[in-house]
Model the fold of this input.
Amino acid sequence: MPRLAAQLLAANQPSDTAAALDDAFRLQLVAGRFDDAAKSLATLRRLRSGAGAAPQSRAANVQYEIYARARSLEASSGRPFVETYPRAFRDALAGLDDRTSALVIRALGAGSGGIESALRAAVARQRGKSAIARPEALALLRAYQVAESYRSFAPLLPPLVAEDDLRRYVVAMHNRIHTPDGATVCAMLVRPRSAPARVPALLQFTIYADSASLFGDARRTASNGYAAVMGFTRGKACSPDRPVAYVHDGADAVTVIDWIVGQPWSDGRVGMYGGSYSGMTPWAAAKRRPKALKAIMVGAPVAPGLDVPMEGNIVWSFVYPWPFYTTDTKGLDDSTYGDNARWQRVYHTWYASGRAYRDLDRIDGTPNPMWDEWLAHPAYDAYWRAMIPNGTEFARVDVPVLLTAGYYYGGPGAALYYFTQHPKYRPRAEDYLLIGPYDHFQAQRGVVNALGDTATVLNGYRIDPVARMDITAELRYQWFDHVLRGGPKPALLRDRVNYEVVNGNEWKHAPSIAAMSNGALRLYLTPARSGEYYRLAPRPAPGDSAIPLTVDLADRSDSDRIVPGGGVADTVTDASSGIELVSDPLPEATELSGLFSGRLDFVTNKRDFDFGISLYELTRDGTYLQLPPFQLRASYAADLTHRRLLTPGARTRLDFHSIRLMSHRCQAGSRLVMVLQVVKGSGQQINYGSGKDVSDETIADAGPPLTINWFGDSYVSLPVHR
Done:
């Protein structure tokens, strides 16, 4: 690697552009030219970090400046790296403000797993080749440089970081807080030494008791002048109780809020933030109206009973290991949760055998009482509704709310549920939504990682440049500064709905979801053929023509099937157990923005079935670009709280409304594709249509194959902005 780096350096044309300097310092580090690397890094810093630069710009590459300086001292002094690195570390951090220092330490603490994986992947791409092109060589050397740097300094960091933290922050790791019902919850506190005597607090309340990563997040919050509190659900961290998910979170979070405002450093105001699970807990607390809670910011928040462990009242198999992960220990049971072979074996055995879904824990051989409790509530009943605001309870949430979400892979979480229900019951609610081309995790923090690298591709889709943002850096503290300190509102929040148009490279803003579109494109499901597909047509087919579908729910010949497709951008789709329909080419570029809906008109021979709808833009070059999916148990179409079984042989009309937002610019000449399929696979429950509790049904309940005739006045209605 040093020889390859030296070759590239010899062939380099001198340049002071940021990209050239970034390449240069990395090559110089690998080649052992540490003084030159330090000079390149200094020039790059002057270029990127002028007056008024954001902390993330000031923090960029400081970890490599420290490394280059330590290696230079090693060479010039003859002292070992283990002695020169601490000096270089202290010298560098001494001149940094808290915000910049927190970001530097975040970068220094980037997990080695991802770094080493990136190097292995870069090497694998070149294996067996006799030559390497310059771009690939630069990519390989970059991966090597990062890995080699971190291998050198990572073991030296813990005492140095602890020393810097002690200088900047007051830390209390294990605060035991007693709840009114006699339980105990635990909280971590990090507050800045340089702050005024009384400060507002930002609270994250979570079941994910990972002290290392959460301490890093708390440090970042404290570096922005807030008291950072990480509260853990009962039974986690220093709590002696049995871990329980969801049930007590709202009341317990309020207990932590009350504890905060009783501290001498508190100014009596608390903001709550979080993502996924910890994006739900602020809502659970807010419905109890704690006086001190003044603002909320959540990313891809879950809504138990609505999107986890089930969606459309169809249970997801991938959630099965989650109770072990979160409740086996006081921390997180990573080894059990990460045993993918075990879980795939459980799902495959269940599916291939045709046993009841309720038998998953028996197949696994380990009791899973939380899972069993969830399966005991197959409808959105009082058990689920007690966990978060429901109906008129939303009227009690009287604080400003910022929600961030993504279009893909659970990115929305239940953000749309909260965002639509809150103003429905509190019309003057001050809610803002920011949504873009993100998955579940990116919707919480953006696409910039701890190293400062920006993701540009998501499962085959090249993310529009304007959407490549760091949500934590660009929104979190601006939002709380706005609400709690009277600062300006984040510039991107120009209206209540702020959305990036995929493939449009543009942020748009609207006062409501309905205002995102000014028209609709209704396409009917017709039995006419368009090549190998059925046709999505602008008008219904005449008469009572229908598309037949037959699915043998007892067939297990597909037990080992590899499911095709699945990328945000892909070359194939999966239409197993379903039908695929395609529209005529779009005559012009068309923006689809909002929530889609539709109607299914059908006759079936069963009392129930589960179905899913997948939508795509099919470009002229054969690429399928994913649009939001939808799924539902037919017997709950009218009301998720009450099951109404179908009448076999009777014509039924079922109206549906998407819970996932889209904003997507389709190219002229593209076609729209709809895959309508019956849910049948190891990834979810199988509804055999007997009318029994689906978790109790077995393959013996399948009976004759499921038949459905989809009549031609069935349609999908897509929101269009012209």
Observations:
- The chain has three domains: 2-162, 179-304+387-514, 517-721.
